[in-house]
Amino acid sequence: MQDLSVIEEQIKGKLREMSGGTPPVPLLKTVGSYGGDLEGLLKEIEALPAAYVVYGGLRVENSEGTRAVLSMADVGWTVLVMGESLTSEEVVDVRCVLSKIRETLHGLDVGGVTALSLEREYLAFVKKGFSVYGQDYTYRDWFVGRKHGK
Fold first, then answer.
1. Which domains are delineated in the chain?
2. Structure pTM?
3. In terms of DSSP bridges, do strands 70-84 and 130-144 run parallel, antiparallel, or are they unpaired?
């Protein structure tokens, strides 16, 4: 299985490279990682729009109910996208950012082995023109377990 920290850095690197406008300027003002709860994250935001990458876990396929040593697994990542949902000259609407992230990450080659696939997109939080959306991505990878008793 690929090193999760390498994949996380690859995703964050692609998010940092995103730009928009004329002349092109970075689309996201904050890109980071997060592993806590949403309320804690809302207190840490540096500048908007922002995107935080969260490891979403692993779902291992066990064939026929056995505890296989080598199995396929779905590896999950969530990108939390935060910003203002207002349209003005000075503010980038968070929905435009969502679209650009989708274009950037869906199909992204991760580790030279597989590609990210967008599973779902949803509204996680909204308050007075401020929105947090989640985008869940997965990719397939080999999971190598160990035999019991060894």
1. 4-144 (3.30.2000.10)
2. 0.84
3. antiparallel
